[in-house]
Structure formats: C-alpha cells, structure tokens
Amino acid sequence: MAFLFSGVDHVQLAAPEGCEAEARRFYAEFLGWEEIPKPETLKNRGGVWFRCGTHEVHIGVQKDFIPAVKAHPAFRVHNINALRDHLNGKNVLMTDDDTRASEGALRFYLNDPFGNRLEFLEWVVVPGEK
Predict the structure, then answer these.
(1) Is 10-123 a domain of CATH 3.20.80.10?
(2) Which of 15, 41, 52, 107 could form a disulfide with 19 if both were Cys (CB 3.0 to 4.6 A apart)?
C-alpha cells in the first residue's frame, strides 16, 4: 500500500452565524480548551478553532444550520469524574451512558450550545485488556 493514515487532524462541528462568542464561552471557558488562530485566508468565514489534547476542533459557520444530534465526536478524558463535577458546577446538562461500562469505559454525553452532540469518555480498562 502506498499510503498510510496517521490519525485525525481535526474535527469540524457546525454552528449558526454569530456563534463565536458562545463557542468561546463553552469550549474555552467551560471545557478549558485553548483557542487557536485561524489562518488569515479563513477568518472571513467566521467560526473559531480550539485545541483538544493533540487534536483540533473547528467550529465552522453553516448557513441554515441544523445541529448533529446523533453523529458526534468522542473525546477521551483523563479523570472524567472531575470533568463531570466541573461541568455540573457550570450547570451543563449531561446524559450518563453505562452501555460500555462492562468493557471498561465511563462516558457521558452533552450538547454544545448549538445542539451538537458530544461524547466524553475515559477508558478505565484499556480496550483488549482485562
């Protein structure tokens, strides 16, 4: 094979026009992600970009925006219970999901301010190990 995938560069989530302040509040202030500058050639499109660990999450403006309520990114977290406590303190609504607890995953879902579904999980047992 002449090519090789090396991972995910970024995830893009859509949001309505004028979303930037609310995106910064949620992703930077609530989740603690670092905002990263957009290239000059893309700034006029709106939206805002963030760093999540070694990856990027791009919040892009979409005309006639409709949130992604099923399709979603899943973010790995170390100490998910501390994140849950932090978000509870910010009155962020979360939905617990224990369907994979027997596999060693703790996880919950929430919606960003635009209605996009986000998953947060911590593997307490590494997949493939018992």
Answers:
(1) no
(2) 15
